[in-house]
Amino acid sequence: MDGFVNKFLSVLKVVTDDNKEDVDDKQETDGLKEEKEVQNDIQENGGKDARGELQLNTAGIREETEPVESTQSGSSSNSSSNLQEDSSCSLLSYCPDEVPTLPKVEQCIDIVPIEDMPLPSPVSQLESSTQSLEPGYTPSLAHSPSRGVLQRDRPPSPSLFDRSIEFFKREFDSIRFSLGTRPVLTHEEWFNIFNADGQMLDTEKFYSFLLDYDWPTELLQEGWKYLFEYYETFSNHDERVLVDKKKDAELENLMSAWSEILEKEDESEENARVKKLIYLINKDVPRTDRDHSFYTSNPENSSVLRDLLVTFCFANPDIGYVQGMNEVLSLFLVTVENKTAAYWGYSNYTLRNKLFFNSTGLMAKLNGVSELLNIHDPELYNKLRVLDCSNMLFCQRWILLGFKRECKTFEMAVKVFTIINSLKPTHYIQLQGLGKCELLSLDMFLVVAILISSRNTLLSFTDQTDVYQWTGKLKLSDMSAISHARQMYDEWANRNW
């Protein structure tokens, strides 16, 4: 794939260079013809163009970058007298033998072609009414003959070739990401971001790997330990050995605490709480990824999943057990294949997002999704509002389970879960009617992207039941939705706040 892209880009460069030479030759020929016609018209009209306006001399301005030497006063006066004597000579046709030195311009004003300016996006339209003009920027309605807009302190526009290369790179990366044909992380690339002591030197590269690469199983096991903060990125080999021992001991103590309470078989409040947790969790664990080889090859792993769930819920009574926790913890257990690392990684993830495990926090996030959809696709939002689905309650499972059930395969679910947890929430959006703000996270944009990708189906629905039935059947078979979600996320993250 990469070889094809490089070959295609090399061919594109040759074709673009040839076309550019042809265009330059044609523009030069056309320019000479046009100038000659204008000169004839002005001479016939007595020094005026077709509109009756006097034309300034532009033919005598040199485009060379070398400095122009000043002429002597005598030659200048002779040129002026020649101009005055020949009344039939137009200003446009007059070109002096020597051009006086032009004054130095302190601030350059570039002409930015309209076609080079970005099209307004929903985000830019939203912010246009609230943002102030940047210093040094002078808006103007005056357009140059090249259909440009005067704008100060702007870098020169990229060439056609540079823009073509950038366009095709973005398109190929988007297609490759959407189809799931991403580069596979190698062991060499992974070890190169660590120093000799085992400390991660390039965290930015690490998160780039998480977002854009497919990971071999043995490397992803290590990557998740850093992603979900089981290991600190600056820790060395010896420190990680101590972390393993410390976390093992802490987990054993937590598991022993509720096991001892259960063994007493009394009627205490704590004993009743542990029994209730076990009862609720036992209903869900046997249904969790029961066809996955991790559980079919070793049935004891289901017991490990149950014990870890009971331990977490017992240690965090303010959160308790929420249906769906079994699905998320199973992602950690299957991916990391280590009981201790899976538990503490899941604990860090859940505590980080604990606000969304209650109705208030979840509704705040769904309201944020609703506002985003209203901005990016007002027509679809209005349709869902007519169907009484604008509260986005039909999407709550997507957010609670990290889109696990919406992915066609377990491997894709791991990819999506990795990506949506590799980007930190960006900025705030004002929630209309609620009087407060909500952080925008990638999973919110993914909900919007999925809805937009199925907009034709959703617009055809006539009843709320149709929406919920569609939700139950939804399966993501490729990465196109998350690619769109990342584009929207980047758009919001790059806003000039």
Tell me what you see in this structure.
The structure is a single chain. With 497 residues, the protein is mainly alpha-helical. It contains 21 helices and 4 strands. It has a two-stranded antiparallel sheet. A two-stranded antiparallel ribbon has the order 3-4. Helix 8 (237-264) crosses helix 9 and helix 14 (359-376) crosses helix 15 (378-386). It starts with a helix and ends with a helix.
Structure, briefly:
By secondary structure, the chain is mainly α.
With strands numbered from the N-terminus, the spatial order across the biggest sheet is 1-2
Derived from helix and strand composition plus strand pairing, the structural class reads: mainly alpha
H/E element sequence: HHEHEHHHHHHHHHHHHHHEEHHHH
Mean pLDDT: 74
Low-confidence stretches: 47-155, 430-437
The multimeric state of the shown protein is single chain
Q: Tell me, what's the shape?
A: globular
Percent of residues in beta strands: under 5%
Largest sheet: 2 strands, antiparallel
- How far apart are the termini? 38 Å
Total number of beta strands: 4
Radius of gyration: 33 Å
Helix percent band: 55-70%
Q: How many helix segments? A: 21
